[in-house]
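Shipment paperwork, digital attachment
Item: protein structure file
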Amino acid sequence: MTKLVIANFKMNGSKDFIESWIQDFFLEQESANDVVVALPSPYLIIFNDRGLTLSGQNVSNEESGAFTSQLSAQMLKDCGAKYCLIGHSEARQFLKEKNEVIKQKFDQLIQESIKPILCIGEPLQIKEAAKTIDYLSEQLDLIDSDEEDVIVAYEPIWSIGTGLMPEIEDIQMAVDSIRSKFHKTVKVLYGGSVNSSNAQSITDKTDIDGLLVGGASLNPKEFGKIAQLC
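Attachment content:
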């Protein structure tokens, strides 16, 4: 089955870096999977129509207006974005985003026919208290279970950028709990310290629909391997 593999550049890169990345990635790319690249917003329109499927990294919860520094769903669409991350743990932490605001972002994207990628995940203290499933359920409560094109990315916060990985059984338990929240089939991705050494094991031993890759995606050869392996 075809997987969805997303490269999240976060706040990294430059025009020259991304130009070089694209060239190196396509030299290595032999994957039959669907690859999406979440670039920093200034570069979306520059690299539109370059053979990449693009994603935004965030979006405003407002349609338009006096919201200096924010980016609307319509603007993302104009820049060529087909997908957009929302609810990433870094946005929840540094921008203080709450579930209600993330739901509004979700609705803005749906209105513009951009596919939301809803990121959810638990911090270490929740994991240690064995409350992961309840925590994930709360993050999903506001999303309409009958909504079209729901993509959920499970990223345990304690695993992002740390090199630490959940046990396969724990990933599958989280995935099962996510699927149980919806009345229809939804895509569930895994993210958190994904690299070419563990990508195949994660996808082979769970029923996830793909991967959300952070730091490892900045190396086009490494990301190309991940896209081939999963």
